[in-house]
Amino acid sequence: MSVVASSTSVKNVEEFEPLIVAFCCNWCSYAGADLAGTSRLNYPANIKIIRVPCSCRVNSNFVLRAFQRGADGVIVAGCHPGDCHYMTGNYYTRRRFSLLKNLLEYVGIEEARFKVDWISASEGNKFAYVMNDVLEKVHKLGPNRKLRDSRWKR
Amino acid sequence: MEKIREEIKEKARQALASKEVDVILAWEKGELWYDSYPAFFTKEKDIDSLVWDSFCVNNLSKYLLEYTMTDKKIGVFVKGCDALAFNQLVQDNRVSRDKVVLYGLPCSGMVDPDKVRTKNLNQGLTEIKKSKDKLIFITKDKEITVPAHEVYYDKCLHCRYPNPVTYDQLVGETVAAEGVLDDSVRFSGVKELEELSCEERFEYWDGQFSKCIRCFACRNVCPACSCKQCTFDDSDLEVLGKAREDSEDKFFHLIRAYHVAGRCIDCGECSRVCPQDISLEKLNRKLIKDINELYGEYQAGLDPSAKAPLGTYKLEDADSFTVGEKGGKKREKNSKR
Questions:
Q1: Average pLDDT over residues B192-197
Q2: CB-based contact, B65 to chain A, within 8 Å
Q3: Of residues B122, B101, B80, B78, the one with CA closest to residue B14
Q4: Could you tell me if B236 lies within 8 Å of chain A, comparing CB atoms?
Q5: Nearest CA in chain A to B203
Q6: CA-to-CA distance for A33 and A26, rounded, in angstroms?
Q7: Does residue B261 form part of some domain?
Q8: Does A51 contact chain B (CB < 8 Å)?
Q9: Which residue range(s) make up the domain with B331?
Q10: pTM of the predicted model over 0.95
Q11: B261 vs A contacts (CB less than 8 Å)
Q12: Which of A30, A66, B51, B207 is buried deepest, with most CB atoms within 10 A?
């Protein structure tokens, strides 16, 4: 898994700066972000991390609300199935967000804008890779206009 | 229908007289020809106004919610779809089974007043009789026979559960399920949309959602939407404002559909009551289809002791977001784009 330190090249293309909201599980993905930081891996500053106790804490409302209030992409990251700190939380996440992801695609939201992935505390590399990957794809797609509230101002 | 009308009344009278139930929930005729609305009967003498005709489309199960907090025992008449709804309410712990006596009514379909109007059959209409798969519209001076499927609600045309799936007493004889909906027909609308490109789909749904006037009829009629406090009503949550805003319309519809995922009995009431004709069933059926494909066939409302698909899990569950990983479903939709 290669780490793409593409934030500089992305930034120079044009002025659009995607805003990505990442819901990270406290026990795995948030620690993964920490590891990515301490390992000095590059991941873009456009990612705003919101720490949640478990990936199953993330309500579908949160995801839609993020899109409504300015996010161009949303990431939900949790422990790998089987590794949940609360034993079963991410099994529910898996079912819920499988449906939500399909539903968003179904109503015409680009697939790349919503990403769910499993990132463990030891996967600093994967964390940086996923963040860069989503940012790159969202950057290509351009700003999210489909779900955004027209009254929202950055 | 005419035959069992008297039977229904007799049943209701007896139930009230023998104190089997305190209240009977059934239908009553309103002022207009298509008006058969839900009514509560507590006295035997009121039973005379009870009706059972081709317009009793209202699902009575949801009206039970008001009685969940009382000690009263209630008798309710349920059609096939209402029985599914009842089971769903029991599964959601919103109605207790032992406080309710269910009288099952096999139903071959309900008549859509709009279709009657377009055929101009409502002039001087006094009664509608059913004979096999035809309906006879009786007016003061003439009788007109039409094939039943021409005037039934769309949602009744391919009914999968014409007979109640649960009841204490059955009134009348069971009817054969006509033209039972197989999944290829049931999900054809969903599949058509899935074939479109992302932009086309967005265009379609944007057009649908922007028609919404947020009257919440779809929510209010839905037997799966039974929360005491709805997130859309709580202004402190700031989930929905009062502004006419497209993103809030989308938000409402996505959350509404997602909230009933795995609990939607596919009764089609939401699309029936929608004053703006938003094709809500295509949203609900997408979720049903995905649940069936990913987590196994599931029909909400069949078994009140079953676990809702989103309230349970399996270790080997598939998901729709990790490509190539174990159990991950290939995203064939993406490759087309």
A1: 92
A2: no
A3: B101
A4: no
A5: A108
A6: 10
A7: yes
A8: no
A9: 183-336
A10: no
A11: 99
A12: A66
